[in-house]
Amino acid sequence: QVQLVESGGGSVQSGGSLTLSCVGSGFTYSSGCMGWFRQAPGKEREGVAAIDNYGRTTYAVSVKGRFTISQDNAKNAVYLQMNSLRPEDTGMYYCAPVQEGCYSDGDYYTDGDWGQGTQVTVSS
User: What local confidence, expressed as pLDDT, does residue 115 receive?
Assistant: First the structure.
């Protein structure tokens, strides 16, 4: 059974930084592609960043240059360093295995093994 636990969210002012963590069990990160997703109030969930088992990364256009995804296979963990945060980055952030679209600009497909998420709030 896949289990994912996200942490590291919080409230920051515009321009601030946060680092999110996701630790998984029930599967091996190094066997595929992992992604970060987010959902703002009243909006659909969207892909933010992804990393494959070779460490190759892709990003949604809206976060490229500001966010960095990384992984630690020994810890079965994936991270999202978020810099220069903007109010539009506010939302619940989730990690999940990506089955399709790993090399796209955020068009990631996952079959929905969601964790509880971690809330990010950016004030102007």
Answer: 86
